[in-house]
Amino acid sequence: MEALVAYIRSGRPDLTNRQMALMIIVYRTPGPHTVRGLAATLKVSKPVITRALNTLSALGYLRRQRDENDRRSVIIAHTRNGARFLERFEKLLQPAKPKARKPATAKKA
Known about the structure:
Elements: H1 2-9, H2 17-28, H3 35-42, H4 46-58, E1 62-66, E2 74-78, H5 80-93
Antiparallel strand pairs: 1-2
Helix pairs in contact: 2-4, 3-4
GO molecular function: DNA-binding transcription factor activity
Organism: Parasphingopyxis marina
Protein name: MarR family transcriptional regulator
């Protein structure tokens, strides 16, 4: 819960579950990634992926690039902004270090 509150207070863009899933898949699984492949992985339609990619591209978190081996295909690629976003988000998810406790004092009877 603390991680979610910290994320909301961070001022970073609110991503939908689909957008966050795309970020994690693209950054944490071996590529190359295509719209068709991402749609199959998430079991959604290609237009759903396209809409999410439009938003993530506008935020600078992912970008589309032509596949050099097949100019008809588009590969979904990483960006520095996207990598930074995920690094910061992962830090929010790390458990906070416990605060040092004051030594217990003996209670007088």
